[in-house]
Amino acid sequence: MNTNQYEKNLEQLGAFEIASKMLKLAKNNENNNSYLNAGRGNPNWINTQARLAFPRFMEFGVKESESTMHEDNLAGYTTLEGIAGRFDATLDLSKTEDVFIKESLDYAVNTLGIDRDALVKEFTDAIIGNNYPVPSRCLVNTEKIINAYLQDTLYNGVPLADSTQVFPTEGGTAAICYIFNSLKKNNLIKEGDKIAINTPIFTPYIQIPKLTTYEMVEVNLVASEENNWEVPVDALDVLEDESIKAFFLVNPSNPGSRALDSRLLKRIKKICEKRKDLIIITDDVYGTFSEDFQTVYSVAPYNTLLVYSYSKLYGCTGWRLGCIAMNKKNVFDDLIAHLPEEKLKLLDEDYGIVTLEPRTLPFIDRLTADSRSIGLYHTSGLSTPQQAMIALFSLTHLVCNDGDKYIESTKKIVAKRYHLLFEELGIKEDNTRENAKYYSLIDIYTIAARLYGKDLEIYMRKNFEEIDFLLNLAKEEGVVIMEGVGFAAPAGVLRVSHANLTDDAYIKIAKRIKVLLKEYNDKMKSSLELRD
Q: Which CATH number fits the domain that encloses residue 104?
């Protein structure tokens, strides 16, 4: 197979699959450069406070269980009465993690109105993992804590915590899979339906709707480099078309790292006031990296289902921690209630095995049931240790009295790396408050034209597959970055993650890009000389 054919075949894969193919090339690069993978968004920082608190409950839980039954390495069960007092007696307030635990319990009691014994019991049992999740969807006090966190980080002052229900999931990835599955099962989307997507966008939102399982028609609301990767306000007008069933967005966007500004939020709110039937799914995983972030859920709670992941902020991708949140009064439940009778009867048959009144089962509980094929609804729900870790991460933010220094530090990390990359490449920086800077999109053709003239851009476009530059960057320079076409970005646009490499690596990446562009320019000159 010739090189051009191989590259064309490779471009049929998804962006992440292409990047994985380049890893081996980069690790064994021809110039023996240090291997630099800026393709994945996995952060190279972690939150320590919640992690150190976790084993304190584990240790206490084991000792507490031994008090009821103990033989060799077999222990019994925990008891509710007086458990908070017994736990408090184990805390050593000279240790920062124990101070954090005490502050967290005080906050939960005094601010959220949670019973101290009930919370300690919930955390202890959750972390030793001795029971199924009860309730299946979310542990009772954990839900209150998650709601308080989402309220403070994403809603920008709009009070929705009390009217919001939460379903913790195995990261945002599982949330996306569960949502698509339940939307289809409950006849809220079907083959041939039109859905709007803000592009460029995280690849699953492009790939999943096209699968034979769904076969939906995508309508792209295109953000461009000229508009700092922000969707134009008038592009939202298409959402007034009643043939558009749903609007999927990532906010701030991935790969553009751009949060919706107040103009766009106001326009969406106005559209939803007119279109009560519009379904919106907003994925807000990068919200905390943007200044004064506000989610679409806060301006259109009736229409919107929110997906959130703790993975990127708290450096816990291996934990798989995310959640789905939706308002108690929502379009999903109302659309299901108005389905044709024959479709409702079919749904009654399935959900009737878990409830005597299937038509009153809320969509968020259908999501929970569907996540375990309904028949295993009684054992559904995210594992309790994972739920407890979500609550602990949430509390690291909630107990901050003078601003969350941890979140501010994460913002500074990605902002510095963004600056170093753009400065070395000579690209104008976007320092507006909406730019989360977790990723950046760079146009390799534009950089080529700026460094060597328009002729090089034309030469590269005409003579090479778009993926050629990425393959050579990996093979020769040891750098892996992602092609943008897989995210529905224009040809020549590449995505760089600012999360997973050391600061100086971004200077090296920029320099190696420039070295490779010089090679392309030299090839162009040689080809012109041969032609002459």
A: 1.10.20.110
Whether 260 and 157 map to the same domain: the answer is yes
Residue 220 confidence (pLDDT):
85
What order of strands is seen across the sheet that includes strand 304-309?
A: 164-170, 321-327, 304-309, 279-283, 244-250, 194-199, 217-222
Looking at the 3D structure of the chain, how many domains does it have?
Answer: 3
Q: For residue 154, give Cα distances in angstroms to 168, 293, 294, 306, 517.
A: 17, 6, 5, 10, 41
For 97, the domain range is: 49-128
The whole-angstrom separation of Cα 23 and Cα 35 is: 9
Say yes or no: 115 and 221 in one domain.
Answer: no
H-assigned helices in 400-502: 405-425, 444-452, 454-463, 467-477
Q: What is the pTM of this model?
A: 0.94
User: Whose CA is closest to 154, among 268, 252, 230?
Assistant: 252
Do 237 and 296 lie in one domain? The reply is yes
Same domain, residue pair 37 and 56 = no
394 located within any domain: no
Boundary residue ending a domain (77, 93, 128): 128
Pairing verdict, β 36-37 and 164-170: unpaired
Residue 396 in any domain: the answer is no
Which of 102, 128, 154 delimits the end of a domain?
128
Give tens-digit pLDDT for 417-466: 999 999 999 999 999 999 999 999 999 999 999 999 999 999 999 999 87
CA atoms of 346 and 122, how far apart (whole Å): 37
Beta bridge partners of 305: 281, 326
User: What's the rounded Cα separation, in Å, for the pair 414 and 185?
Assistant: 40
Instruction: Name which of 468, 430, 330, 379 is nearest 2 in CA terms.
Output: 468
Dist. CA 221–CA 235, nearest whole Å: 6
**Number of residues that make up the chain:** 532
Kindly state whether residues 302 and 182 are assigned to the same domain. yes
- Co-location of 321 and 249 in the same domain: yes
Nearest to 59 by CA among 75, 41, 45: 75
Distance CA(323)–CA(165), nearest Å, equals 10
Q: Which two tokens stand for residue 334?
A: 């109302």
pLDDT in tens, 458-504: 999 999 987 899 999 999 999 999 988 888 889 999 999 999 999 99
CATH of the domain at 369: 3.40.640.10
Count the Cβ atoms, other than its own, within 10 Å of residue 492: 20
Amino acid in the structure at residue 337: A
- The rounded Cα 64 to chain-centroid distance in angstroms is 37
Residue 227 is given by DSSP the state: G
Please tell me the distance from the alpha carbon of residue 109 to that of residue 119, in angstroms, as a whole number. Answer: 9
Record the tokens describing residue 265, joined without a space. 């939020």
From CA 394, how far away is CA 480, in angstroms rounded?
33
Report whether pLDDT(14) > 70. no
Helix (H, G, I), strand (E, B) or coil at 350: helix
The two structure tokens encoding residue 512: 């190696």
The three-class DSSP label of residue 164 is: strand
Secondary element (H or E) of residue 483:
strand 482-483
